[in-house]
Design brief:
By secondary structure, the protein is of the alpha/beta class. It has helices spanning 35-43, 46-51, 99-105, 124-135, 152-166, 182-194; strands spanning 3-11, 24-29, 60-67, 73-78, 109-117, 140-145, 172-173. The protein has a single domain (4-194), classed as 3-Layer(aba) Sandwich (Rossmann fold). A 7-stranded mixed sheet has the order 1-3-4-2-5-6-7, with helices on both faces. The structure holds guanosine-5'-diphosphate. Residues 29, 31-37, 81, 145-146, 148-149, 175-177 line the site of guanosine-5'-diphosphate.
């Protein structure tokens, strides 16, 4: 996937979202899970630079992604990291209020890419997010980040434990550092965008 990423806007309320158009992919994960690094690995450096700008960490940052060899476009939505608080009853307590309606209602949103750290046991906040996405019937894929830090045995053990704890049929291991799994994730994203016929 040779692509160009162009920053569109930072939204802190639903009125600021871009008009729905191209198929959209949302990226979610706890702070420090490796989301900026993964976005960089997928599309280049512009995304992380924008996301780390002060004030934009509580916003949804939208990027227009254009394929170099085709006119196909999609939108990547980089959501704020969640889960600073160890125990919190709902996702909304640690998240700005416009996030849940975005995930539940946004038209054009084809897939949520949910990041968990392959080196860290499943967290309550991750489980809560996935249960919530299930409850609103939003399609998602769970990606295990920083897989390069684990040896073969540890990999299998940690991935198995994450799948079990989060009740998943599959989890996609990736490394922004080595590029492991990036092509697979790109192809999942592309097929989510084209599966509805208008991507
Ligand atoms: P974000 O807060 O979710 O955007 O996370 P960052 O992308 O800023 O990454 C958080 C930390 O994890 C940084 O120190 C990164 O260098 C590190 N990191 C991110 N991705 C990887 C990876 O694939 N492998 C390794 N070993 N470290 C990573």
């Amino acid at each position: 996937m040779q692509v160009k990423a162009e920053f569109m806007l930072s939204a802190v309320s639903a009125t600021q979202f871009p008009r729905p158009g191209p198929p959209e992919i949302a990226f979610l994960g706890r702070s420090n899970v490796g989301k900026s690094s993964l976005l960089n690995a997928l599309v280049g450096t512009a995304t992380a630079r924008v996301s780390s700008t002060p004030g934009r960490t509580r916003a949804i940052n939208f990027f227009l992604i254009t394929g170099e060899r085709s006119a196909k476009k999609m939108i990547f939505a980089d959501l704020p990291g969640y889960g600073y608080a160890k125990v919190s009853k709902s996702i909304a307590e640690t998240w700005p209020g416009f996030i849940e309606p975005y995930l539940a209602e946004r038209s054009g949103l084809r897939l949520c890419v949910c990041l968990v750290d392959a080196n860290v046991p499943a967290q309550e906040s991750d489980g809560r997010l996935l249960d919530w996405l299930r409850s609103v019937r939003r399609e998602f894929i769970v990606v295990a980040t920083k897989i390069d830090r684990l040896s073969g045995n540890q990999r299998a053990r940690n991935l198995g434990a994450l799948k079990k704890a989060l009740d998943l049929e599959e989890i996609l291991p990736v490394s922004a550092k080595t590029g492991y799994g990036i092509k697979e994730l790109q192809s999942r994203i592309e097929s989510a965008c084209s599966s509805h016929g208008d991507g």
